[in-house]
Amino acid sequence: MSTLTKQTLSHLDWLEAEAIHILREVAGQCANPVLLFSGGKDSICLLRLAEKAFRPGRFPFPLMHIDTGHNYKEVTDFRDRRAAELGERLIVRSVEDSMARGTVVLKHAGESRNKHQSVTLLEAIEEFGFDACIGGARRDEEKARAKERIMSFRDEFGQWDPKNQRPELWNLYNARSHKGENIRAFPISNWTELDVWQYIQREQLELPSIYFAHTRPVVRKNGLLQPVTELTPAKDGDVVEDVRVRFRTVGDITCTAPVESDADTVEKILAETATTTITERGATRMDDQTSEASMEQRKKEGYF
């Protein structure tokens, strides 16, 4: 008599299966979805999950990046190359386009454009008629993210109301929406930063070089390391140091800080991540240090 052996799945297998299920639910329920791809580590994982969900066919959605115009070149170059390698359509819309239209007005030339991405995102959703945006946000990133459903409903104004979200019992996801409304879908919402790095290691995913330790001029401000660049030059009185750093998260140069690190391999990053007690946004995002730029308020205004 044959003996049936129960296959033991690792926690990464379970997380991967859940994410693939969510991607297929979005593709099955939504008429015109899009996957947000910035070239960052979380969206790189989403691309691999989409490959597993839909290959050998083409993705049932294009890729899109809302670019502030102040992103690290290493990341945008990687973004373009990876999309070309996959043969998938990449749409790029910039905050600079919104500034030219007058829908984004900066308080001053040096203001961070990061929080204004919501305007450009909502304009892109309207331009292409997207009814769902798939992104790599995770609940462990920030307390407002932890309030999100897997399928996060946004009204006809692109607004998020944390008290008016749909129940998701027994892994049943409701992505239906009326014209003008939008769903933000988060397939890796239940992943942690450590899970992401473990998946990167298992899948041997390529990343932009700034995720790994390198030497960079920085200025220490408010407990963070501000990179010294053309956009963020050192000011009078600043002490510029050449420090060995890496980026835990990537975004607009004006608000994304690296952390001190000698981790120049995925294995070393895993060891660091396993012992850290500070979230990646808490350790690296200068725009999250003020109430004006709080994540929850920005999400209510349409931010991802």
TrEMBL record:
The Phosphoadenosine phosphosulphate reductase domain, residue ranges: 32-258
Biased segments, Basic and acidic residues type: 295-304
Gene Ontology process terms (BP): sulfate assimilation
Keyword presence, Nucleotide-binding: yes
Classification via InterPro entries: PAPS_reduct_dom, Rossmann-like_a/b/a_fold, SO4_adenylTrfase_ssu, Sulfate_adenylyltrnsfr_sub2
Stretches the record annotates as Disordered: 280-304
GO molecular function list: ATP binding; sulfate adenylyltransferase (ATP) activity
Pfam families: PAPS_reduct (PF01507)
Enzyme class: transferase
Domain of life, per lineage: Bacteria
Alphabetic keyword roster: ATP-binding, Nucleotide-binding, Nucleotidyltransferase, Transferase
EC number(s) stated in the UniProt entry for this protein: 2.7.7.4
UniProt keyword Lyase, yes or no: no
Family: Belongs to the PAPS reductase family. CysD subfamily.
Name of the protein in its database record: Sulfate adenylyltransferase subunit 2
Organism: Thauera aminoaromatica S2
